[in-house]
């Protein structure tokens, strides 16, 4: 079957989500969850669903049953779904807008639409303000007030985005502003400077001899769709991708204080401000001032503020009020792993399984990044949707890697590896004999996320007790903004990892960042060591490593905690 439409995974998932919503509105049971599950599976599928459809059975995708597989084929072939159209016709217009609001379920939405003819959120707000909702059967004054509150919340709430998606955009804006002759200092601030895993909006701070010009350039950047606020000190815009960016232009004398203030976090700032108050000082975005004398104690540079408060400078990634201020006072802040400390990537894919590039292409790209080694970890047989390798194919791949290493100048080493699958009972989808031939064995859970905490914990512990397993890949299975982590007793896993010398991966793929900052920190507390990995599916993805380092830093990790900050001979010892 030739496919001219090139329907994307997101388009398929969007249709399935809408079917789920509409079935739910009709009060159909169970089916909506099945459609949601399938939508999620398609959204998070690393390869194009159209390719899967061409080469295999769609119902091999975990979460996709036979019935829905047929519907997906229809979408791929025609670009739309007849079933969805018929569902749409059954419902009163506008109902779907209403159900997006917190606290309004399908039943209420249908009642509002049928009884009052409400089609939009604006109309809903108007009718609530007019007191017309309270008299509907099943509503009442309290529900009416709650509806108003939900409408307001929906107007202020901004969707969060992945750090990995926003960081390049933010840097590009920073670069353009920095290139203006009148701009003296410019820095990212807020959550993006702290490298938080998701971003609400982007905050940028600058000083300039011509604030007007800076604001003009900013408000007319390519990609700006709307200007929300336009002023001399603050301009806020929304990019066509829906991301809000706030630019503040301050005086040079206040830059450090403003940078400190607008970097946050809010919680960090509150604790810091208490330290100032204890000295009868005041800390705000203009500086640190002595209230008794009116004298400015600090404000020009950020470090000066921390110094004046008796603290070591605190890296932005740590500023979450998780003990960093106490550590800065006691001089016990960790020596955080540097962004340039990584010597190689321990989990990348190639064309042999679901990757886009050859082993040689990945190796070349890794060398360009200054790496000394990279581990080729394609999927094993158990993961058929990812075209996992059989033991025979893997043996071919090992021979290929050995050949490439032999022909190389010796400055760079390819490690042979696998990302094998942890089965429902903890068994690995490759025989021990094959595993023994590999340099790096990453084992990950890719299915059966619904197991109980006890089952999942035992499953992963069983895999860790396999002598060949060296690394647990993306240990909680979460997909940021989309899939919750599976239930697992991480404390038990971390204790076992420390005892067995199994590394925990910090998977740097933008939607994973798994382990998370907080989990990485507790793992470190249990004595665990880590592997940082991009999980690259194409050579450009190797750069995701930066996000993994950011997560490690936010988890208070040092270079010593991370296996792949070591030169190859030492890494090999750790992997034995
Ligand atoms: P986001 O945008 O939700 O990812 O997170 P942030 O941390 O960037 O938050 P945002 O954009 O609302 O504010 C930027 C920074 O400004 C924040 O990290 C700290 C500072 N800030 C904002 N509101 C307050 C506040 O009420 N008190 C204090 N002390 N600082 C605040
Ligand atoms: Ca922000
Ligand atoms: Ca902001
Ligand atoms: Zn992988």
Structural summary, described in words:
The protein has 576 residues and is of the alpha/beta class. The chain folds into five domains: 82 residues, Orthogonal Bundle (DNA polymerase, domain 1); 64 residues, 5' to 3' exonuclease, C-terminal subdomain (DNA polymerase, domain 1); 90 residues, 2-Layer Sandwich (Beta Polymerase, domain 2); 70 residues, DNA polymerase, thumb domain (Beta Polymerase, domain 3), CATH 3.30.210; 232 residues, Metal-dependent hydrolases (TIM Barrel), CATH 3.20.20. 43% of the residues lie in helices and 15% in strands. It is built from 24 helices and 17 strands. The protein has a seven-stranded parallel beta sheet. The protein has a five-stranded mixed beta sheet with strand order 2-4-7-6-5, sandwiched between helices. The longest helix is centred in the N-terminal third of the chain and has 17 residues. The protein is globular. Bound molecules: 2'-deoxyguanosine-5'-triphosphate, calcium ion (2 copies) and zinc ion. The site of 2'-deoxyguanosine-5'-triphosphate (DGT) has 14 residues, from helix 11, helix 13 and helix 14.
Query: Which value, in Å, is the CA radius of gyration?
Result: 27 Å
Largest sheet: 7 strands, parallel
What percent of the residues sit in helical stretches (DSSP H or I)? 40-55%
**Gross morphology:** globular
**What is the helix tally?**
24
Strand pairing plus helix content: what structural class? alpha/beta
Which spans of ≥5 residues are poorly predicted at pLDDT below 50?
none
Indicate the CATH class of the largest domain: Alpha Beta
What binds here, in terms of ligands, is: 2'-deoxyguanosine-5'-triphosphate, calcium ion, zinc ion
Could you say what the CATH architecture of the largest domain is? Alpha-Beta Barrel
In whole angstroms, the N-to-C terminal distance is 48 Å
For the secondary structure, the number of strands is: 17
- The residue-averaged pLDDT reads 92
